[in-house]
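Need residues for this backbone.
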């Protein structure tokens, strides 16, 4: 797949880049996408929920009424779950929701997500950029120049760039990632994927693709 390279003003530079078919042109696999997104969201869960059981709530351990002759059920503690203020039966406990996913499955999921974006023509290639100082206004102008000001944007850089990251972090519909941080969830959650020239080579390296220029 061949795309024109745009400058920061949104105009064509005359250069073109070719996206690797092994990454951006495969037959998407919906099931592995589901698994990878499920793992991503599961890993983001804190899992710190906790409810007190009968042995943990505060209360007297005195037997609250006699065993027989009351005409009601036996009761040995005010902390019993059947009483108001008592412990909870089988309440939630702190746990880790993460689960293992094979590397090849995750890799196929990312390729599938990128292939969906390519098939929908929602990928733009931008020449390498760098901001001298962090300014949100620069990212807003970039979105306007690319005519995607109302769309969710995922900007992919070859390496970490503090000024670009700080410039974009206050914008709700903009996220900045490096090529090595690229994940299935963020690719699918964005409406437009913007790759810088150098990030394409870095993506090929991450997926182990040697593409001749």
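Answer:
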């Amino acid at each position: 797949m061949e795309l024109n390279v745009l400058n920061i003003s949104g105009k064509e530079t005359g250069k073109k880049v070719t996206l690797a078919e092994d990454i951006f042109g495969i037959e998407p696999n919906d099931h592995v996408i589901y698994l990878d997104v499920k793992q991503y969201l599961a890993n983001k869960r804190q899992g710190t929920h906790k409810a007190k059981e009968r042995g943990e709530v505060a209360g007297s351990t005195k037997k609250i009424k006699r065993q027989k002759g009351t005409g009601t059920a036996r009761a040995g503690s005010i902390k019993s779950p059947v009483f108001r203020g008592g412990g909870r039966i089988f309440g939630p406990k702190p746990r880790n929701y993460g689960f293992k996913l094979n590397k090849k499955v995750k890799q196929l999921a990312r390729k599938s997500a990128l292939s969906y974006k390519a098939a929908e023509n929602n990928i733009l290639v931008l020449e390498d950029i760098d901001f001298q100082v962090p300014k949100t206004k620069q990212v807003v102008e970039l979105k306007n120049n690319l005519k995607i000001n109302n769309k969710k944007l995922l900007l992919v850089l070859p390496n970490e760039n503090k000024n670009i990251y700080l410039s974009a972090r206050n914008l709700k519909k903009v996220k900045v990632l490096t090529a090595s941080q690229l994940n299935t969830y963020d690719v699918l959650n964005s409406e437009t994927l913007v790759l810088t020239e150098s990030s394409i080579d870095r993506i090929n390296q991450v997926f182990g693709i040697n593409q001749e220029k």
